[in-house]
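check these tokens.
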Amino acid sequence: MKELLIQHLAEDTAQQLRGMGLSESTLSFYQNESFRLIIRFFKERGIQCYDYDVMCEYLRFEYSRFQRGEINLKRLRALELGANRFMRVAEGQKLEWRVCSRGTHITLSPTYQTLLEDYLSSLHQAESTISGKAAVVRRYLSYLHLQGRDTPSDWSIRDLKQFILETIDEYNSKSHLLSALRGFHAYLSKCGAVDFAYETAMMCPSTPRKKVLPCFTEEELSQIFYSIDTSSAVGKRDYAMLMLAVKTGLRTIDISRLYLSDIRWEQGEIRIVQQKTMQPLSLPLDSSVMDAVADYILNGRQQTQSKCVFLRDRAPFQGFHDGHAIAHMFRRRMKSAGLAKENGDGRSIHALRRTLGTAMAKADVPLSMISQVLGHQSTDAVKRYISLEEDHLKRCALSLSGIEITRKELIGDV
């Protein structure tokens, strides 16, 4: 690689970022904060040209500041993102806009990049599943590199435990983090790359019985919709997305990947290929949903080349990368509506699917039809909705008539 002056590299990176359509405030952060700190770090060491090892040293420096409490996690992640985009340009890559899942923006050393690619090529799973595992493993490898562990032979179970301890609270699904790490280490053990008992770092209680998670009442849904200001572009978008979720039961990933061509206005339906199952799905749209979506497209949606129906509300105006942004939006809307939300209580946007499924079960819709509408591949997944429908459960209750009660404490005062 030819030598690149660090100042010129910062200018080239900023130019590419500007071409991505980022807002002026975002560009200002990169130039006046992220890149300025990198340049200063190099100059303090008397280095004028880009060096990968020095960049890694800079990332370790920022991480140590976070550990000392000098910067918060949000700023650390922002500086890491800026540094990794800086490194991509240094490696001759062209920056293109894409929404990054947690960990996907990280640039790895050649050794770790090869290790990651070999592992991913061994997987035979859905693209979305592999992408999720790749984000976790990439972040894990970056963490190890920042700790000075340059090859798998340098790793220890203590490193694995510490990584889990520091990152697990950032994941909504802790099982997702542990599953990705467990699979990666199983691959490494099979290849003979690591020899410590990684399982002990991820020991957790046995899988609990599946609990019946709640759905939303009509009053709660009314509160959420009433709290949305549909006079604003963001309000029109959020209202339309939630109407789709409530009335059709679409998964957030499918709402985020809904294209303009998927809506058949004359037929009053949408036709998609589900991202989770890769199976086609056609669903009717009632007039209230069509009106909400049309209002957003005509009066709230930015003029852009993107084919996605729903767009980010900040530049660049592109579609969502996945359903996480929609889930986050729903949590904000719940808070605005004064509805409580706690971790693990099941009151997430996915509960809107349960709400629809439960309503259909209450209306005596056959399980096969509920399964078809919700895009399930079997009726087994629908059985949990029956457990939420109290009226039908009451019909299954057995009478106690004819059963003699002999214990006085059960009879009470007579």
User: Anything to note?
Assistant: The first helix runs from residue 6 to 19.
